[in-house]
Amino acid sequence: MAVEAPDVRAWSLASGLGRIAFGVGMLTAPERALRVLGFTDVNTATVAVTRVAGVRDLVLGLVTVSGLGNPDRLRRATLANAIADAGDTLAFGLTLRTSEREAGVRGFAVALPAAAAGIWTRWRLG
After folding, report:
1. In this predicted model, what pLDDT tens digit does every residue of 18-52 receive, in sequence order?
2. Which of 13, 16, 51, 106 has the fewest other C-beta atoms within 10 Å?
């Protein structure tokens, strides 16, 4: 079974736990998360949107980790993660042309490999 493949299992676990941690961080310390991402214009609106994104990552992470024992569930979670990461890649890419370029560079550098790893993992899951 592909879920038992060490590379697939390791990436799925790391991705799921990382998303959970990142989601909790964005919910509990959104200002800090924004600064780590490289954003300089931190205000009430960006904090609210960061918390929304935090919920998304927390849920995606929980669904991924809970799917480790169920190949069909893990396939769906992995596809959802890859799509979210591709969307993040696009969003950060568009940020490269703004005053928040540093955030665009940092986010793009994380989101693009995550999207590729998600697509690869989904392919490995069959």
Report:
1. 999 999 999 999 999 999 999 999 999 999 999 99
2. 13
For the chain, how many helices (H) and strands (E)? 5, 0
Residue pair 103/95 in contact by the 8 Å Cβ criterion: yes
Cα 79 to the chain's mean position, in Å?
12
How many residues does the structure list for the chain? 126
**Two tokens at 11?**
């990436």
What DSSP designation does 98 have?
S
Q: Which residues contact 69 (CB under 8 A, 6 or more apart)?
A: 3
Burial of 7 (0-12, 13-18, 19+ CB in 10 A): exposed
